[in-house]
Model the fold of this input.
Amino acid sequence: MPQALPKSIDETAALLANADYVAERSLATAVFLALRMKKPLFLEGEAGVGKTEIAKVLSATLGRKLVRLQCYEGLDIASAVYEWNYPRQMIEIRLAEAEGVKSREGLEEDIFTEKFLIRRPILQALEGDLAGAPVLLIDELDRTDEPFEAYLLEVLADFQVTIPEIGTVRADEPPIVVITSNRTREIHDAVKRRCLYHWVDYPNAQRELEILRRKAPGASERLSQEVVGFVQRLRKMDLFKLPGVAETIDWSQALVALDTLALDPETINNTLGALLKYQDDIARVQGTEAARILSEVKAEIATT
Ligand SMILES: Nc1ncnc2c1ncn2[C@@H]1O[C@H](COP(=O)(O)OP(=O)(O)OP(=O)(O)O)[C@@H](O)[C@H]1O
Ligand SMILES: [Mg+2]
Done:
């Protein structure tokens, strides 16, 4: 069932929390405003900080269909918006020939109708859904090339696309658009201008602990505190790839699977692969560095 849109920032934060998404105030504000002003929400941030999850959570809690457009290099209109079902059109032409249909115009009109149209995510999102305007997730926009971005700009400006053979498809109600980027390149200003922008940062310790309570409930409070303290310290190091929230959750779940009640240096060394994904980073942290960080974490927890 479609849900009413939240009426305040508090309601927005509660909505996200209902789906176990722990948002900081500034993110809840951006989400609230995007929904209220019917503007696309542009989320940028490091890997695994919960950008994609926002769209999933909005779709689930608002009861809207989630339409996902995963971006990649070479993504084109045929994969993103629509394309004609060429094989079916060919069959239709053959059948018409077999039946001795002569009129070319009639045949052309027949094969360029909705029946032969393959709807890709953007068209699906514009056509709407019984449950209300869908959530359109345009994921990892930085992976596409600039021509596609320019095209997207037109779609975002009017929420309509024109199919020459059929006409213009316009959204009755604009979809709830969430765009994410890992910032492997800068997205054009013109796209950003049409959106509300929010940089999704790593959570602070308190928020990350709250995320673990919800996403890795099997871990003891003490273990969760140690995990968060350890990860937060790693993020201050000059590593090639810092652990995201996804890695914190993974590591906790790995530790729970090993029946760990509290961290010790050996367990850390053996499970670092859940947290760090580059051998250079692992080599730097493993051993004495991990032991040093752990003693700092334990000392800090003991004093609070
Ligand atoms: N604030 C949060 N509250 C609850 N769970 C979170 C939060 N942030 C991240 N997560 C969890 O972390 C995992 C990764 O999130 P998500 O896939 O949205 O990251 P992302 O920013 O899209 O990463 P990438 O750039 O790699 O695609 C998910 O399982 C998500 O549930
Ligand atoms: Mg993502």
User: Anything to note?
Assistant: The chain has a mean pLDDT of 94. The beta strands are 41-45, 66-70, 82-84, 117-119, 135-139, 160-163, 167-170, 176-181, 196-200.
